[in-house]
Amino acid sequence: MHFISEALEDYVAQHSENEPELLARLNKETHQKILQPRMLSGHFQGRVLSMLSKIIHPKHILEVGTYTGYAALCLAEGLEENGTLDTIDNNEELVDFQRKYFDQSSWGKQIHQHLGNALEIIPTLNKKFDLVFIDADKENYIHYFHMIVPMMNKGGVILSDNVLWSGKVLEEVKANDKSTKVLLEYNELLKNDPRVETVLLPIRDGLTMSRVV
């Protein structure tokens, strides 16, 4: 779903920072070889993630939902010199694909992959995070959020992707559409939870930025 015209989207991308060459190659190979390539963050959203990370300059980043590693590499651009990025995904087939690009970047040794159920892995990470990106199964967004908030440093930022869900948040919800039901509840949670202050940005499919207070 396009919230502005494709021509305006192209103009926005053309007048934002260029997509780094490594990410352009990752982007191209994802579209050539991987199912559901629209899951990839892409040029403009990737530059937004990069800019936010550079502003925050986090020591520890957590990403829930790696896919092919595009967003992880964008977020890594803002890491402190000795910082870490932990990224979790349950798709074993993508691990080598991700690692290939991680190791070609400047942050390969700082990016730690975790394969499995994020609800089981997150509690084992003995860190306080400055930046988190949630972009995984929508049905568990609320569980991820409640699990992650106590692990955040004060002033840390939680980014949540796909919160507009192709505009379905404004439509009548079908009885079997659990993802939209959860996202509606999640958006209300972020608006009203006193532990965070939130702004929902109409970037791509909706990106919420929540600052831990």
TrEMBL record:
Q: For this protein, what is any one GO molecular function term?
A: S-adenosylmethionine-dependent methyltransferase activity
| Keywords in alphabetical order | Methyltransferase, S-adenosyl-L-methionine, Transferase
UniProt entry tagged with the keyword Cell wall biogenesis/degradation = no
Q: Which Gene3D superfamilies match?
A: Vaccinia Virus protein VP39 (3.40.50.150)
The domain of life is Bacteria
One biological process GO term for this chain? Answer: methylation
> Could you tell me which PANTHER family the record lists for this protein?
CAFFEOYL-COA O-METHYLTRANSFERASE 3-RELATED (PTHR10509:SF14), O-METHYLTRANSFERASE-RELATED (PTHR10509)
The protein's name in its UniProt record = Predicted O-methyltransferase YrrM
